[in-house]
Amino acid sequence: MTELMSIRAATPQDAPMTAAIKSAWIDDSDWLTRLKSRDEIEQSHRDRLIPNHEVHVIGTPVAGYIALDDENFVTSLFCEPQGAGLGRAMLDHAKARRPYLQLWSFEANTGACRFYEREGFVQVGRAEDESEEKLPDILYRWEAA
């Protein structure tokens, strides 16, 4: 594995980079309203996400991260740059450790929806405005063969 594709467990010291990656994604998503500042995201990652989820980062320096909860939900998957295989590498890393994965994706995030479907996820549900952002979501599920 190259340094770009190396995956390791996240630590609270990774919070500035994971927050910067998520914050940049929010800024680039014209359909999404920002609800938290970059500093608030960083604090949330340091105090809640990293200590309470299985979080892995990819790359040196950190170029992306994936977070999973105890119920096999992918609660976060963000990388920069997109289209470089980082998201696939992180999903493959998670798939190797779990018998199934679930995740919610914003319906408006069409690129992510296509990505998850290419990666073997199947749509199994929908929600109209239950997320904090009040946007329609699609529930996806992947199961090991």
Please, could you describe this protein's structure?
The chain has 145 residues and is of the alpha+beta class. It is built from four helices and seven strands; from the N terminus they run βααβββαβαββ. Strand 2 (54-58) and strand 3 form a beta hairpin. Helix 1 packs across helix 2. The radius of gyration is 14 Å and the shape is globular. The relative contact order is 0.15.
Q: Which quaternary structure do these chains form? A: single chain
Q: What is the makeup of the main sheet?
A: 7 strands, mixed
**Mean pLDDT over the residues:** 92
Compute the number of structural domains. Answer: 1
Helix content: 25-40%
Q: Strands of the biggest beta sheet: in what spatial order?
A: 1-2-3-4-5-7-6
Structural class, judged by helices and strands?
A: alpha+beta
CATH fold category name: Aminopeptidase
CATH superfamily: Gcn5-related N-acetyltransferase (GNAT)
Count of DSSP-assigned helices: 4
The 3D shape can be described as: globular
Q: Helix and strand string, N-terminal first?
A: EHHEEEHEHEE
CATH architecture classification: 3-Layer(aba) Sandwich
Distance between the termini: 25 Å
